[in-house]
């Protein structure tokens, strides 16, 4: 009976980590929306180090840690959220590149 409690606790912990990874994938978009609504500008030197990029990297780190600890298909599918988590950082990088290197 002690093992079923341990298995249930392990499953609950994995479910919480899964939910955290999904939540963190959308944080960069939420931060970008807040920046747009508040009319906060990201300076050119902040193109690669800002809260949007750092939150995307946080998602990647937490997701990688979760995948390495579980090695399940469910954890591997979290990497399908990569385009969502890194959409804003890629757009910022493209904006920086286009403004830094005009044609």
Characterize this entry briefly.
The chain has helices at 2-37, 51-70, 73-76, 82-85, 87-100.
Salient structural properties:
103 residues, mainly alpha
Describe this structure as you would to a colleague.
- With 103 residues, the protein is an all-alpha fold.
- It has one domain (2-100).
- Helix content is 76%, strand content 0%.
- It has helices spanning 2-37, 51-70, 73-76, 82-85, 87-100.
Kindly name the structural category. mainly alpha
Total beta-strand segments: 0
| Largest sheet: number of strands, sense, barrel closure | none
How much of the sequence lies in strands comes to under 5%
- What's the rounded overall pLDDT mean? 86
Beginning-to-end CA distance, first to last residue: 70 Å
C-alpha-based Rg, rounded? 18 Å
Shape assignment: elongated
- What is the number of domains? 1
Low-confidence stretches: none
Specify the helix fraction band. over 70%
Helix-strand topology string: HHHHH
